[in-house]
Amino acid sequence: MDIEKAIVRDCERVKKKLIKEAQRRGIYEDFGQEEIRELESKYFQYKYSRAYRHIDALEEWAESYTG
């Protein structure tokens, strides 16, 4: 499996989950950090690859998401 496709798929899944969570519970200080840490752990060996930028982009999105 192409690792970039896998990372993109997982990031999209997490993003959808976070949007639903924000609608249900609201946004809080560490919004999305637990899910992003899980992705970072799962794909740690690709930290310095171009594919990892999708995880970084998801983290930036979660930090600036206002609902």
Which helices and strands occur, and which strands form pairs?
Layout: H1 3-25, H2 33-42, H3 53-64
Helix pairs in contact: 1-3, 2-3
Overall 3D shape: elongated
Determine the mean pLDDT: 95
Number of strands: 0
- End-to-end C-alpha gap: 33 Å
Bin the helical content.
55-70%
Q: Strand content of the residues, in percent?
A: under 5%
**Which spans of ≥5 residues are poorly predicted at pLDDT below 50?**
none
**How many domains is the backbone divided into?**
1
Structural class: mainly alpha
Biggest sheet layout: none
How are helices and strands ordered from N to C? HHH
Give the number of helices.
Answer: 3
Radius of gyration: 12 Å
Report on this structure.
The radius of gyration is 12 Å and the shape is elongated. Helix 1 packs parallel to helix 3 (53-64) and helix 2 (33-42) packs antiparallel against helix 3. It has helices at 3-25, 33-42, 53-64. With 67 residues, it is mostly helical.
Compact summary:
With 67 residues, this protein is an all-alpha fold. Helix content is 67%, strand content 0%.
What are the key terms here?
67 residues, mainly alpha, 0% strand, elongated
